Structure prediction request, 131 residues.
Amino acid sequence: AFKTWSAVTPLRFILITEKRPKVHMYMRFATRIHCCHLAPPADMAFDGLGGVLAHTEYPRYGGDLHVDDDENWALHFDPRNASVSSLLYVLIHEIGHGLGLEHSCDPESIMFPNTGGYNHNYSLNHNDIHA
Prediction:
C-alpha cells in the first residue's frame, strides 16, 4: 500500500518496529473503543464486523492509521465472499488520508468514501495523484 503512494510522490516510507518511535504515520489494528489523538476514544470507536473498516487522522493530528481488527480481512477483494474486505485497498485509501487527502466524489478514485463492492482497481487515478 505504501509503495502505491511512493510510486507517484517523492515520499519514502520506512517500516519502523520499535515501540512508539517518532514517526509521521503510525499504523495499528484496534477494536471497538481505542485511543486516538484526534478525538476522545468513544468518538472514534470501531463498530465491530461491517460498517467502518478503518480511519486515519490527518497529518496535523498525528496521521495515525487504525484498522478494525474485527473485520474479515484478505489482501485482495474476493468476489466469492462478500464478507471479506481488501486490506490492501483500505490501506491505500487510509494512507491517502494520512497524507492529507480528503474523500473524492469520483467513484473511480481510491479516495472515494466506500469500497463500492468489488473494486479491483488498486491504482491511483488522476484525481488521487493531483489532489
Q: What stands out?
A: The CA atoms of residues 18 and 117 lie 36 Å apart. The first strand starts at residue 27 and ends at 30. The chain has one domain: 2-129.
